[in-house]
Write a structure and sequence with these properties.
Elements lengths: L8 H15 L8 H15 L4 H7 L3 H15 L11 H20 L3 E6 L6 H11 L2 H4 L3 E8 L2 H9 L1 E2 L9 H7 E6 L2 E6 L1 H4 L2 E5 L13 E6 L8 H14 E9 L12 E5 L2 E4 L1
Parallel strand pairs: 1-2, 1-7, 2-6, 7-8
Antiparallel strand pairs: 3-5, 4-5, 8-10, 9-10
Helix pairs in contact: 1-4, 2-4
This protein binds S-adenosylmethionine.
């Protein structure tokens, strides 16, 4: 089959509005090449020769409903790393005593952290390893790191917790020795996160824009790093309103360094390095 890489402006707009409605991600016209390069494999798999036919098929609700998860998985950007923005993990260690003091006062020894766009898992595993290094403080605490993403492919990789050697370069040697086991993988050798770290984490699929968040108890810390950059102000506002509801007073909020919460300055106090505290 001869595949055509051409997409018209109007077919691009159809796909970008499908993505926006489903995820809140804004794809401007300058992302045409990204959309082509990410979706062309899918067209190939389906045996569809061009975007014109693909977009026509999306008019059929049966095809659309089956296809939407693939479109979402193809068009989310999942770049992540262990110890990404490492200074923030030093801040995590610094704020831990105040979080625990709050729990001690309430006689509630649950520590609830939400990694809300966790991609392939490096962020929540980093959080779990850093907390494990603070064992003298958290011994006896019930630590739970809820890790969510919209993309089912990255979640299934995250849940396996196996990484290729080139993904490990930011992991300090002592963490590598303590928290990973060498394993054989399909591609050769890999590193598997240890069971002690894995069991601190629950992975779930959550759409930050369209899902309603239901939590049994308020969350102490939310990580929402490097995802709101893909949203417009409407999406950001919608999401912030939901986060404000689930984060407890005095709880902490970690954003990506290129992101800002200035619009919501009344509800949050800036701490440092894109870390905020709910008033
Ligand atoms: C660039 S990664 C960031 C990963 C990690 N937080 C970090 O900073 O390294 C952005 C993630 O946001 C997810 N995402 C995008 N839109 C989403 C939505 N509406 N709901 C939930 N997750 C979403 C993507 O699937 C992707 O895995």
């Amino acid at each position: 089959m001869q595949l055509s890489y051409f997409i018209s402006d109007s077919d691009f707009k159809t796909i970008s509005s499908i993505v926006y409605d489903a995820t809140g991600i804004v794809l401007k016209i300058n992302k045409k090449n990204l959309v082509i390069s990410r979706l062309i494999k899918r067209l190939n798999t389906l045996g569809i020769p061009n975007f014109r036919e693909y977009v026509d098929l999306l008019d059929d609700p049966l095809f659309f409903n089956k296809e939407l998860p693939y479109i979402v998985n193809c068009l989310t950007t999942n770049t992540t790393n262990f110890f990404r923005e490492p200074h923030q993990f030093e801040i995590l260690k610094k704020i831990l005593p105040s979080i625990l003091e709050y729990g001690n006062k309430k006689n509630c020894h649950n520590l609830r952290i939400w990694s809300s766009a966790c991609s392939t898992g490096e962020e929540p595993y980093t959080i779990a390893m850093v907390l494990s290094e603070c064992m003298e403080y958290i011994r006896g605490w019930n630590v739970q790191i809820l890790s969510t993403d919209i993309d089912s492919d990255v979640l299934s990789r995250a849940s396996k917790g196996v990484y290729e050697p080139e993904r490990m370069k930011n992991v300090p040697q002592n963490y590598l020795n303590k928290y990973f086991n060498r394993v054989k993988t399909y591609h050769g050798e890999g590193y598997k996160i240890s069971d002690n770290i894995r069991k601190m984490i629950i992975f779930r699929q959550v759409n930050l824009i369209n899902d309603t968040f239901k939590f049994n108890s308020p969350v102490d810390i939310i990580f929402c790093r490097n995802v709101v950059i893909y949203f417009d102000d409407i999406g950001k506002q919608k999401l912030m309103n939901k986060f404000i509801e689930v984060l407890r007073s005095g709880g902490y909020f970690f954003l990506g360094h290129s992101e800002t919460l200035l619009l919501y300055g009344k509800q949050f106090k800036f701490i440092e390095s894109a870390v905020y505290q709910k008033a």
